[in-house]
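Exam revision sheet. Question 4 asks you to relate a sequence to its structure. Input first:
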Amino acid sequence: MGKGGENVGDELVVLYSHLEYACRKIAALVASPFNSALAKTSSSAAAGSAERDKPKPLDIVANDIILSSLKNSGKVCVMASEEDDAPVWLADDGPFVVVLDPLDGSRNIDASIPTGTIFGIYKRLVELDHLPLEEKATLNSLQSGTKLIASGYVLYSSATIMCTSFGSGAHAFTLDRSTGDFILTHPNIKIPPRGQIYSVNDARYFDWPEGLRKYIDTVRQGRGENPKKYSARYICSLVADFHRTLLYGGTAMNPRDHLRLVYEANPLSFLAEQAGGKGSDGKVRILSLQPVKLHQRLPLFLGSSKDIEELESYGDVQQKVNPGYDV
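Answer key, structure tokens:
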């Protein structure tokens, strides 16, 4: 994969080549008619957690694929995954830290709805090298989003697309299935300053706070700062909803304390900002938040800068009422 004209260090290039290899394997896995059978072979690897959703078997397979690739790269000291209770220490001399959601949206996979891999990359905090392994693994993984040196997602859909940033713009690469190469297809992505699409689960409307209901009502009627009436597009797959938002503008959001700061919000907010957009929890910039625990959850609003600013101006947009939803 080319790097969109950016000057990327050799060690990061090696890391990305191993990430690409892992994502090609995952792309083949999710597209396979045998993926359910393949997943069952690794279902015993699932680690339970009272704080998180019970992992689907394919999540675990994808996690194992990426873990193996990062270990083989020799460039990663620690990997922290949404599917693991604690970070996995890989190499004392690895210069990078990788945080990731290995297969976002996997609950929809049986309906062939797009899924994705989300990742963020930090430099190892060498000043922590003297600490006990468990402590330095955790602290390296809890870095602020402002310290990200790269992030990205891979969308597994009609095409397999890797969108990534190394800190100077966002670029998307499409997998050429005939050669196995990721080809630069969307250089220097710029999210429109304002869009005409919002993406949220409208069925939760009556659980929303007044500010969020008022904002959505206003833009649907074309009475907001943008005089055009907004349309709803909601896939319920974060990578897919964000990818569309990145290309067309508007907002993708989940107002509940549901999405993970470390694995989802920080990497995608980094990408949004690199494309000229914004990532917010409804009140403040996502990247300004300091994670305090690995599986910390929060509301997430991503998209066009003017749309996010207008939404924030309504004040009360974070949903604090969280009744149990079966779907």
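Marking note for examiners. The domain at 197-312 is CATH 3.40.190.80 (D-Maltodextrin-Binding Protein; domain 2).
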